[in-house]
Specification:
The protein is of the alpha+beta class. It has a domain of 119 residues: NADH Oxidase (3-Layer(aba) Sandwich). It contains seven helices and four strands. Strands 1-2-4-3 form a four-stranded antiparallel β-sheet, covered by helices on one side. It is globular, with a radius of gyration of 19 Å. Flavin mononucleotide (FMN) binds next to strand 3.
């Protein structure tokens, strides 16, 4: 079957970063569905076939460990450690994080060569977009987050990785789309304002 141009255009244009998911107990992501999304990432263009992407699919235990890292960073940026406000921020952050139906961490294998490194980041980004489109086509929303957990040593420890070899470039928060995903940022500048067509 040939994919129609208008269907592909619609998929690309309608995909939104998702900030609101259906409850994970009533709408869990099945392993095979998730694998379909990850497989799509593998087919992204990548110069010299470096295939620089690595994925860590979190289960409930690892999500709970990451929730404490997330909460400590979030509470620490909002209140004095050990204060009552800190404890409140911490608890609500853990709760919020545990509600995310599925988390996939994406890392880039770091080349020693600066040019390859840059190209590899581009390739990883292409892979993430493939994943996002494949997910969206199945009613699954993704939020690509680059928040502070990606820089935390505790996250690298959880994955048993070294930041010298792997750079974490995305936490993908995934789940079945609820409503408009709580996303109000669908606008784009018109093509004419960002393109120049030369003779
Ligand atoms: C490299 C990169 C990093 C991003 N980091 C974050 C992030 O940390 N938090 C977040 O809410 N969205 C993040 N986003 C999603 C963008 O905010 C989102 O794509 C943008 O608002 C446009 O919305 P759309 O994806 O619905 O078209 C990131 C996107 C990219 C490409």
């Amino acid at each position: 079957m040939t994919l129609r141009t208008e269907d592909l255009a619609q998929l690309i244009q309608q995909r939104r970063s998702c900030y609101l998911f259906k409850d994970k107990q009533s709408a869990p992501l099945q392993t095979n569905t998730l694998k379909t999304c990850l497989e799509a990432a593998l087919w992204a263009p990548n110069h010299k076939l470096t295939q620089p992407w690595r994925f860590w699919v979190l289960g409930s235990q690892s999500q709970a460990v990451l929730a404490s890292t997330y909460a400590a960073l979030r509470a620490g940026s909002r209140a004095e450690v050990d204060s009552e406000a800190y404890r409140l921020h911490y608890t609500s952050a853990v709760e919020k994080f545990l509600q995310i139906p599925q988390i996939v961490l994406v890392g880039q294998v770091l080349s020693d060569d600066a040019v390859i490194r840059k190209e590899d980041y581009a390739a990883c980004a292409c892979g993430i977009q493939n994943l996002q489109l494949m997910a969206w086509q199945q009613g699954i929303g993704v939020q690509w987050s680059t928040g502070p957990i990606l820089q935390a040593q505790a996250t690298y420890d959880l994955l048993e990785q070294s930041p010298e070899r792997i750079e974490l470039i995305g936490a993908l928060y995934m789940g079945y789309v609820q409503g408009d995903c709580n996303n109000q940022s669908a606008k784009r500048k018109p093509l004419e304002s960002v393109s120049v067509w030369l003779d």
